[in-house]
Design goal:
Helix content is 19%, strand content 32%. The chain contains three helices and eight strands. It is globular. It has an eight-stranded mixed β-sheet. With 142 residues, the protein is α/β, with parallel strands linked by helices. Strand 3 and strand 4 form a beta hairpin. The N and C termini lie far apart (54 Å).
Length: 142
């Protein structure tokens, strides 16, 4: 039987990578190599729909940072909803993760949206990083 909790707990940090050409093989915060892990993500799509996605993501174990490419998320949401990807852009929020058992039950329709929300792990924080292109810069711009 899945555990019950009164309110969403916080777990992991999250970065939605908007850069097409940056894969973040190293953590942008601590510079350690990222690993590939599969996470059952909970995504809220406007106006009132929950979408579950079991997705391979880059993960930094030191920072507990999950990194997901924005383009991949939008493509998978659009495919799951049978809509063109451009209709999905900026109409969703990746809220957190759930246990694998809960993800399987949710996909079978055995859990209500309210139960999923109470069992979900909300992200501790959502980070944003700016990519600085490689190259030579004058010393005052570093």
């Amino acid at each position: 039987m899945p555990r019950k909790k009164s309110s969403p707990q916080k777990k992991h940090r999250f970065f939605l990578n908007p850069y097409i050409d940056c894969a973040f093989t190293k953590c942008p915060k601590c510079e350690t190599k990222t690993k590939i892990r599969k996470f059952p993500l909970v995504i809220h799509i406007e106006p009132q729909q929950l979408f579950f996605l079991n997705k391979k993501c880059k993960y930094c174990t030191n920072c507990e940072l999950i990194i997901v490419k924005k383009q991949e998320i939008e493509f998978l949401i659009a495919a799951g909803l049978n809509q063109p990807p451009e209709t999905i852009e900026n109409k969703y929020l990746v809220m957190g993760t759930i246990e694998r058992k809960d993800w399987q039950a949710a996909n079978k329709g055995l859990l209500s949206p309210q139960e999923i929300i109470t069992r979900m792990y909300v992200f501790k924080d959502q980070w944003d990083f700016e990519v600085i292109p490689a190259g030579w810069y004058p010393s005052e711009e570093k």
